[in-house]
TrEMBL record:
Origin species: Limosilactobacillus oris F0423
PANTHER family: GLUCOSE-6-PHOSPHATE EXCHANGER SLC37A4
Protein location: Cell membrane
Record's protein name: Transporter, major facilitator family protein
Transmembrane segments: 16-36, 56-76, 85-105, 111-130, 142-161, 173-192, 228-248, 268-285, 297-316, 322-343, 355-379, 385-406
Recorded coiled-coil stretches: none
Membrane topology: Multi-pass membrane protein
Top-level taxon: Bacteria
InterPro entries: MFS, MFS_dom, MFS_trans_sf, OPA_Antiporter, Sugar_P_transporter
Residue stretches making up the Major facilitator superfamily (MFS) profile domain: 17-411
């Protein structure tokens, strides 16, 4: 009797190695993309960029990223998840290294755009590979651990990049940032090798579909999938609200609540810790409760709305209250995402896992673009942070309603399991 049939949740050393390989591969993608925000004030001064020019580097990275998230997912399904993970990491190294030699605005902008193109396939390829290495009974826990790299990426890049740039120059900071994906690439080449125990393409019929389906047929199947449509709507609403609020929270805490920048930073650090705990716990919970992933994600998502309302109405002279509501917003805005990211791969036919993730990620990015602008427009129109946050709090509630109607695809859930047991 297999360990899984016996109810054991023991992961092999190889599974841990693959999980670490995927974790660091996605981690360096976040470090390279976030490095510019940390270094922008120093580079702007050195190269005489305006604030608008510096900010455009962020924008053009995400334009490039959005362009390749869906094609990257399709290629991952066609060519293999490992190949696309390694290609993305290699691209991060190449274009981050080129950033060290930028001489002016246009060369740097070009490299940032190319860095975005290289980073686009990373999430879809990583999610496809993760579902090949972990069964449906424990892959949510694995994904909960995997997605923590997003929080660590923000912490790591801010820990070294500004300090190195101040003492040794911004080019040195970028060079160190470029070395990280090179080291990860070398590690991932070896860590991500081997036969995945739950690979759905072990099924001959699934493998044949991967080879014979045209790109247009793959797109049609995903774009007309009821669950993918729902998850895309959820992505715009919740991902938009999450990053819109995250980008505005420091300003809200200082300008509206009257705390110092240091106190706001402390509250945001707790926000990050709470989100980290929530992501891991949500994955573990999904693997241990008898509730569909869609329903569980919906109830976790529902926390986001009252948390935003509580933060908006938080008094300005109570640090305990600020910490409580900031922590609850962190849990509400990130906890559900562990499960929703997994659903993107599980609700589609098994040969289209990365395509499904890539398709939904396009809408996730759209939300990330639109909602900060919505918050800015609301603040300009009303002059009130409270009103702006209260309006945005409606978005995750609508996402909650949509998530109640998402159903897993049993074909995807069982395909790899059946094959693994058959070996």
């Amino acid at each position: 009797m297999s360990e899984e049939k016996a109810g054991m949740r023991h992961w092999t050393g190889k599974q841990w190695l693959v999980l670490i390989g995927l974790w660091v591969s996605f981690l360096v993608s976040f470090i390279t993309r976030l490095s510019w925000s940390s270094l922008m004030p120093i580079v702007n001064k050195s190269l005489h960029f305006t604030v608008s020019q510096g900010t455009s580097y962020v924008t053009w990275f995400y334009i490039g990223y959005t362009i390749t998230v869906l094609p990257g997912g399709i290629l991952a399904d066609k060519l293999g998840y490992r190949k696309m993970v390694l290609a993305s990491v290699a691209g991060n190294f190449i274009f981050m290294a080129l950033m060290c030699f930028m001489q002016g605005y246009w060369s740097g902008l070009t490299f940032r755009f190319l860095l975005g193109l290289a980073s686009g396939p990373d999430l879809a390829a990583c999610m496809g590979m993760l579902t090949d290495w972990f069964s449906e009974k424990d892959r949510a826990t694995a994904n909960g651990i995997f997605v923590t790299c997003t929080s660590f990426g923000l912490t790591i890049v801010n820990a070294y990049a500004p300090a190195v740039a101040t003492t040794h120059g911004w080019r040195m900071a970028m060079a160190i940032t470029a070395v990280l994906p090179l080291l990860v690439f070398i590690f991932a080449v070896f860590a991500l090798r081997g036969k995945a125990p739950y690979a759905v393409d072990k099924n001959k019929e699934v493998a044949k579909k991967k080879q014979t389906q045209s790109v247009w047929e793959m797109l049609r199947k995903v774009a007309t999938n009821r669950n993918i449509i729902l998850l895309s709507i959820i992505g715009i609403l919740t991902n938009g609200a999450k990053w819109g609020v995250t980008n505005w929270m420091n300003l809200f805490i200082v300008s509206h609540l009257g705390y110092t920048a240091v106190q706001a930073g402390q509250a945001m650090a707790w926000y990050g810790v709470a989100s980290l705990i929530a992501m891991v716990f949500a994955g573990w919970l999904s693997d241990h409760v008898k509730m569909s992933r869609g329903k569980l994600a919906a109830w976790l998502m529902l926390v986001f709305t009252p948390a935003l309302i509580g933060l908006a109405l938080c008094p300005g002279n109570n640090m305990v209250a600020l910490y409580f509501w900031a922590g609850l917003v962190g849990m509400g805005s990130f906890g559900y995402s562990t499960i929703v990211n997994l659903l993107d791969a599980e609700v589609v036919p098994p040969e289209l896992k990365s395509t499904g993730v890539g398709f939904v990620n396009v809408f996730n990015q759209a939300g990330s673009f639109v909602f900060p602008m919505i918050l800015g427009s609301l603040l300009t129109a009303t002059g009130s942070y409270v009103t702006s946050f209260l309006v945005v709090s409606i978005a995750p509630f609508l996402g909650f309603v949509a998530c109640l109607f998402v159903k897993e695809n049993q074909e995807t859930l069982s395909a790899g399991h059946v094959d693994a047991d058959a070996e």
